[in-house]
Amino acid sequence: MFRKNDDHMQCELFNTSSYLNQRVRNRLDGSWAPLFYENVFCMIDESPFAILYADQVGRPNFPVNILLGLEIIAAFKDFTVEEMLEEFFFNLQIKRALGIRDIGECPLAERTIYYFRQRLYLHTLEHPEDTDLVYQQFQIISEHLMNFMGLSGQEMRMDSTMLMSNIRKAGRLSLAYDVLHKALKAIPAEQLPEQLAEVLKPGFKNNLLYRAKFCEIAGRFHEMLQLCGTVLKWVSGDDDLKNHVAVKQVSRFLTDKAEYDTDSKEWVYKTPKPGTTSDHLQSAHDPDATCRKKREEVHIGYVANLTETCSDDNPVQIVTDYTIKKNNVADQTMAHESIPRLVSVYGMEELYVDGGYSGEAVHNTAADQGVDMYYTNMTGKESSKTSLNEFTFEGTTVTHCPAGHPSIFSLYDDETSNILAHFDKETCQACPAQLSCPTVPRRQGRTLSITPKQRIAAETRKQIEDKDQHRINTSKRAAIEGTNSAIKRRHGAGKLRVRGHHKCRIIFGLKIMAHNFKQLLRSVKGDIRRSLQEAARQRKRKGLPVAASNV
Helix, strand, coil proportions of the chain in percent (round to 5)? Predict the structure, then answer.
């Protein structure tokens, strides 16, 4: 039975902190704990979590705000579950942060934490179209922090970073063993033939993976493919086993790595085509993980797309949006989904990104939402021909070429948004810029065909070539690289302690909230942006009043 926790709003007359030395009590009051209690714990809305609990009258749930607040603190301190419980029981700061005034009050079992995580995961898995419960709380807390610190959300920056779940990079032979072993564990032992039962014996793995010579690996992998095929054939008559998750992974693995040879009646390894292996199974323990090569480095896992404020007037910057996807999802796709949210919630007007986000989809979405896009670079090669920006446009009509010659006529296709401009043949032949001109010779003259993608690329490149604007774009966007690094190093997001897309999304959301709380601490302590610190010092030297803090 679900019940909201309002007990923390009524303070007891005597509690543990009442017996502390006054100096110690003052230090407790000046620590991070009261700040967390007021700006994170009290902002948690427990109502959406009622769906995780039964409607029947019975024993009430352990307070959701305490569980969620403790998870955020664990992300803030990068605690394991064991460390989290230890600190919860005996750390007075954490008790205070969670609205608990007495040591020993509100006992918590380790299993309760895992049950709560399981409920969150199953709800996300069963209702993928619903808003993630953790993301809901992130939005509530972020909006509060924005208002509390007086931050502006009109200017933002966006970047993606690679994450890895709790798996290891496995070679194809090791992956074959893991997939096969999991499937055989799902089949009752008494039903296994001797050939397959051999795989479950302790010495099989050592002989297969660690005692095989390099020249024997191809042969061992061929043997594993045959064993996987035997498993599928063995369970083909049992619908329950055939539809088991572990057995389906065997089928997926064989489809990825092999093909059935009808002549030899064996499974044989197939050489993958370039660019087709990204969605292949990477781990038997995390079937959602994908593979992506970025800057000559291979990443297995997921990609996180972060958006952060970047106004020069903000004392600190906080993350305003995050998305977790399989790491073969393009940056443009994630930006396309995030921009409308950022506009509706924070009123974003300008977005600073790198070249990975340049493209027609993002440009059109931003234009529809009234957002100005600023890029630091572009993907693709630059053409040696004259830029399309050198042509003169009046709306969707090309009126003049870069040399000043008028077009004969210009056509616009409403369906494709393409522009086709025609120029005089004799005039073009006499033009000294003919070799670098992007127009194409035709029988009746020269034509220029412009797609929306080409025009957007030309406009973006023109913006990048403006040195002053490019310097501003780079300065605005660069700091989000440090944010990515801090979240991965300080809060343990580089390699998460869970597996699977939905679990990673939940845990990563907690770490983002922990990062934002850390930014609040910085603001309160005066550890604000250096440019604002220097401006305050300059005003102080001149005898001018220093601007009051927003907090």
Answer: 50, 15, 35
